[in-house]
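Working notes for the structural subgroup meeting. M.R. asked for a predicted model of this chain before we commit to crystallization trials. I am recording the input and output together here so anyone reviewing the notebook later can reproduce the run.

Input as submitted:
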Amino acid sequence: MKAMVQDVYGSPDVLRIEEMDRPVPGPGEVLVRVHAAGVDQGVWHLMAGLPYAVRAVSGLRRPRTRVRGLDVAGVVEAVGPDVTRFREGDEVYGNCTGSFAEYARAKEGTLAPKPAGLSFEQAATVPVSACTALGAVRDSGRVKAGQSVLVLGASGGVGSFAVQVAKAYGAHVTGVCSTAKADLVRSLGADEVLDYTQQDPVDGSRRYDVILDIAGNRPIARLRRALTPRGTLVIVGGEGGGKWIGGNQRQLGAMLLSPFVGHRLRAHGTLVRHRDLEALTELIEAGSVTPAVDRTYPLAEVPDAIRRLRDGQVRGKVAIRL
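Returned structure, recorded in token form:
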């Protein structure tokens, strides 16, 4: 099979197409014939080996897993022992290791039936980003109907889903983005859109019950100025920072500070589980959530897709078509 592989950490230039053997599913695993894959910031972090903390999982000196890609949508080709939820021919989507390939193995618990009405390309953009958004809104943010929610990074992968999920939960949503992406955020259903190039969305002139700060770098003290007295700040990921822990230093700071202040300060990570995918499927099939796919690329152009993502050009999500 064809696969996009790497043997050293680095820029997208380290990626290349290689012919390799088809994976064999083990106990509790499913072999998926990949129709499409998603691209997210996590793919870049694993490719670059940055911040260095990710190498504790991905391999200290070189990538332990050669094939990149996390999000997948496709058709079940074979099932391993003990798999009970899927059979050959099922259309699925979810999370795996190595989706930038013609075939990929996935754990049964990280897959769900593909939502009806979505193309494979659309479905492939959902798992990591939308599960992160769902957890940030529902679990860490505890968003309720009638609350005011500020989404910083509303035009990105996680943010584009967070706006829609928060609206589905009945919140009044304000999305923050650049001028060029304001129309996208409005189309996602945001009640209000703030252009961060024209105004500071957290200057304290307005207060919100919940702030979702997605891949941002604003100091926690500044973010708290825009919270109601008992409001909740959820820090989702983070870019920049040092080479060792990167933007995660703000998440650590939030967790340490939270017990001593009136605000709820939460750090939220990514976890893809079949029950969350199924919850998202319900929202998608009800018309409450729709993936915002900016562009699709063939497998050979994965490096270009990653570069465009890192340059901040992507509106919503990009997909890889196989």
